[in-house]
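Note to self: keep these together.
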Amino acid sequence: MSISKSKEFFMAISTEKSNLIREQRRKQILDVALEMFDEKGFTNTRVSDIAEIIGISKGLVYRYYKTKLDILKEYKIPMQTCLDDILERPTAMESLRDFGSKLITDPKEQGYLPPMRVFIAIFIRGELPPDMNENFIHNDFGKNYLAPIIKKGQENGEFRQGDPVELANIYWYYLLGIMTHILHDKNTKVERPNLDTILNILKGA
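Structure:
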């Protein structure tokens, strides 16, 4: 191998390694920020807090994300992926159950902290920036995301007949109520409700 080819080879390896390190650091920032947004709230979390937990300088965090809002916006893609995945469940009932379970189940029990849960918590606390309200979590969430699932369930005979938007909002506001109760006092263990109760209402059982 010629000297020039050797240089190109090692430069390619160096670039690949550098990119890998950057992606690992970016993921680390996102993971820590997500936990802190959940524990402290979006408003009370500072970039310096995130940096301290990771063990890096605040300036290094800013090299990846210019603002705390930029970090929050990074979760939109995994949230959309989560919603798309829920829609792929075999039945509409399973889709609604899975969605609700992801929101109200303690992350420690799940072994995973869903970005959607944190995003909704930020929304409930009134911390969601106005320019993000129209993207995912807003008053039309039931209509835009849950009503199509219920409509599918009605067509399959899984749910009672009626306005799918109204039924979707019943489920959506039920979940928001549970989340609000959970967030009211995070030091108090809230018994996880049985989703069968609300789902049976949607079924007309």
